[in-house]
Amino acid sequence: MIGEREYVTADVFTDVRFGGNQLAVLLDGRGLTLDEMQAITREFNYPESTFVLPPEDPAHTARVRIFTLAHEMPFAGHPTIGTAFVLAATGAIPLTGDETRIVLELNVGPTPVVIRSRGGVPVHCQFTTATLPEVGPPPPTRATLAGLLGLEVSDLASGTYGPQAVSCGFPFLIVPVKDRAALAKARLRLEAWETTLANWWARDIYVITRTGTDEGYDIHARMFGPGAGVPEDPATGAAAAALAGYLAAREAARDGEFRWVIAQGLELGRPSRIEIEADKRDGAVRAVRVGGTAVLVARGRLLP
Predict the structure, then answer these.
(1) Active-site residue list
(2) Distance from C-alpha of 56 to C-alpha of 94, rounded to nearest angstrom
(3) Among 67, 74, 94, 268, which one is least packed by beta carbons within 10 Å?
(4) Could you read off the pLDDT of 60-97 as tens digits, one per residue?
């Protein structure tokens, strides 16, 4: 039985309301069945909702279950950032100073989060992925991918920055294109997706273009996620994590800490800023971090 439940909604990877990616957080998910969590998620009709539970390990802060409109997720980025921010902003997590370190139990594993605050108010959250980047099988041909996205083969980037499937807990097919014009005209062709990627290792597509430091961003991105019931997502932290691994692996330096800033959601009118970092040692990626801020939007109760 669902009963009366308190919830908070937030916009994530933005510092202004009605930007970024929407999230609903049920502050107490105890006693809810999987079907009830899925039904509540569909009622909110946001890309994702989270349900906060007591941790299985008392050394951790909370267990968090993440649902899209289609199914439960092992890991997702904007729900991780947003849930940590909501718990800190509502006082459910006591802040311990300028930096508060917590661990959220996700289905993919314990996930460390740093909450940065100013004057006792949270202003930024950053998580470290529970799993290191994993490269998937070879992607479909460039011609197939171009057709899938309504592009010409010449619109796709080539050389070192070719398409690749990568996962940091949830897989994405990263498809670099040559410029922002190509990014803007990309349109997912659902019938082509159903015959090409619907049952593949990575079903969701992260289309990106490197933009130098244009307007403070290194990368512009779009994410098409029909497998998760999301035609296009305004901010995708799990895809950004996979991208950090992808980019770090292509850096010439064998050692270092690398940072990039991603703009996403512009085409949807919900601009988002996602900060990613990767540590590389002896030529291998050793850690991936994703950060951003959030803003509270609404607070209420589900009726019993």
Answers:
(1) 48
(2) 19
(3) 94
(4) 999 999 999 999 999 999 999 999 999 999 999 999 99
